[in-house]
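Ligand-bound model needed. fe (ii) ion.
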Amino acid sequence: MPPLVDIHVHLLAGLDDGPKTPEDAVEMCRRMVEEGIGFAAAGAHQNDEYPDNTPDRLRAAEKELVERLRTAGIPLKTKPSAEIMVGVNTLEQFGRGELLTVGDTGRYVLVEMPHGLCVEMKWLVEEFVERGVRPILGHAERVPEVLHDPGRAEGLIQAGCLFQVSSKSITNPPSPEDGRAIKSWFKRRMVHLLGSDGHSLRRRPPVMKDAYRVVEKWVGAEEAERIGSLTGQAVLEGRPVTVPKPLPATRNWFAWLTG
Ligand SMILES: [Fe+2]
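Prediction:
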């Protein structure tokens, strides 16, 4: 297994609904190393619920985490990040420097839809791309209007959006129907990045190994490495990534029946 990259994990203690204490965060990182994760976007939420989470605050918290990992001898490389909830002011906030990019490189933003809502996001993707920034839709599979509408999903990808899928949705999808749609996204090359969306060791552990094995089975070793390791590394280092065009959907009734 290549060193995995977790592009979406909450590791900044006390800043959101992730780890409560620095010790909790360090224990999460220890677990991540056991999971084969070598590099992670250590993030916290940036939304109305956490107005104090300025980029400088997140940067400082990640710096502290790096120091603690060094002291504890945990070989996990991290970079600061944020999970930004899309709102009417997202672009203005970005323009004012109020949003932290993935890895703080200025090249990618991790965004999520407002909870329980699907907003028309294609225009926002286009605006970001015009500014030289590529949005990554966090846990894209959790938005039914995107997961079950291939046209909408393809439109976002075509506009330049990258899709991150969470490991738990791969190993334990909310429904068989969602599971089939997620598998089809992978097979059609519509998933670009993996994330654990880990919040704590108990509630949402930062695990990826089992999900990676499933992805490997679905798409083969080379494609799995691209999704689980190489693209994430490029994103965290602020390098450009090229992703394949979505393959056409197949209407294979036997595959449909057997899942
Ligand atoms: Fe998250």
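The radius of gyration is 17 Å.
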